[in-house]
Amino acid sequence: MKVAIIAGSGYFPIQIAKENPDAFVLCIENHSAQDSFKNNSEIVSLMDPLSWISILKKYEITHLVLAGKINRISNEKFFFNESMHELISKTFSLGDNSALNLIEKFFNEHDFEIIPVTWILKDCFFKKGFHREEFISNKLKDFVILNARFGTNFLNKMSEFDVGQSLVVSNRVVYAIEALEGTDEMIIRAGKLYQQYFQNSDFGPVLIKIPKLHQNLNMDLPVIGLETIRKCCDLGFSSIVVSSKGTLIVNIDRVKDYLTKYKFCIFAI
Q1: DSSP 3-state assignment of 265?
Q2: What's the pLDDT at 94?
Q3: HSE value, Cβ hemisphere, 13 Å, CA-based, for 200
Q4: Which end of the chain, N or C, is less packed with Cβ atoms under 10 Å?
């Protein structure tokens, strides 16, 4: 098995590459840079997926891991190369999971297997329960559990529409649902609403980020990193709810240190 990491933006692909120095890295232009990696790598345009195939074949890659955020292509930047057009144009009208299923099919047809990132990444999930529990009051625990139940039920019901992996909620009031802007921008939007209307509440809002029902977990697991946690903490959030088997934690040791230092709450379900 010879693995290539298809590297989008953020620290996550860099972490995976460091833990897997023999993996090849395919950097997506305007998302990741070759000088961020010590691994053997090349850079490709998101507009030309057939060039990906040529490069991967050249390096005799057999298995692929997708990591990092990859932005959708704007139709204003669209070049009418027929091969690219057929793949990319179909994603415009699809939700994230349906689009990723289509991309997986494209790679499978060229004899590549997509594998989940958990195959090559160590220690990337929180166990069920509260972290760091010793700093969390029973009152806050009850608040988080109540909102976790409401929020996960809400997200599960939305799954059939292939919309969002996360939302922000407090006392059954939904502040924001993740859309095309992504998690971090949604957090900022929800934080402004909290500071404007709800700042006198006992606890700040709760971010919930979990996989959608029937989500393609080979292609797209929800990811939480230190920057997202810092943003939540800075905006007055009380906690984050994640899946113990489905929400990847980037650089988990640093995250644990941060939770201890700032007494911030993460609840894994």
Answers
A1: strand
A2: 67
A3: 1
A4: N
Burial class (CB in 10 A: 0-12, 13-18, 19+), 219: buried
* Among 8, 49, 13, residue whose Cα is nearest residue 30: 8
Bond before 172 cis per omega within 30 degrees: no
Task: Name the burial class of residue 196, with classes exposed (0-12), middle (13-18) and buried (19+) by CB atoms within 10 angstroms of its CB.
Answer: exposed
pLDDT of res. 30: 93
Strand partners, 146: none
Note whether 68 and 32 are within 8 A (CB). yes
Residue 87 has pLDDT above 90, yes or no: no
The domains located in the chain, with CATH, are 3-119 (3.40.50.20), 129-268 (3.40.140.80)
By DSSP bridging, strand 3-7 and strand 63-67 are: parallel
